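INTERNAL AUDIT FORM
Audit reference: QA-55
Scope: verify that the stored structure record matches its stored sequence.
Auditor: D.O.
Record contents follow.
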Amino acid sequence: MKKALFLDRDGVINIERNYVHSSKNFEFVHGIFQFCSQFQKRGYLIFVITNQAGIDRGYYTQEDFLKLTDWMISEFRSNGVSIEKVYHCPHHPEFSGECECRKPNPGMILMAQSEFNLDLKNSILIGDNQSDIQAGKRAGISYNYLIGEFSMDAFPWDEII
């Protein structure tokens, strides 16, 4: 079984701006590439789990999201970091009803676990909302960290890996 680093997207990977759906509005959090590199060097597989209710709300399309995701993965790759997979929930309960994938539900994490044979007890989740942390706990992730928008350089990663 493999250990994983789960990252929320908006507010962890990029600066939170409402409904970011193009590269021109996407600004990486300072230090995110170096941060992820440290985990990758220690054998963690890196996943992104992100609620994307803007799709259900009609603010942008699934294709817009996928195009931005491909660009984001390419930027990580250019900085020596491999993102195994990006899981997203396009739903919003007011528009499409409840689902298992929208955080705080653990659906995206459990999909990754099943697909990649992950050891969630020895995995880490980093989010910027309580719903991220709840999803991690519900999935059985032992190490769940809530952060605000700050440089990843300030995150005490060496204390947790």
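Auditor finding: record pair retrieved intact. Strands lie at 4-7, 45-51, 83-89, 124-127, 143-146.
Action required: none
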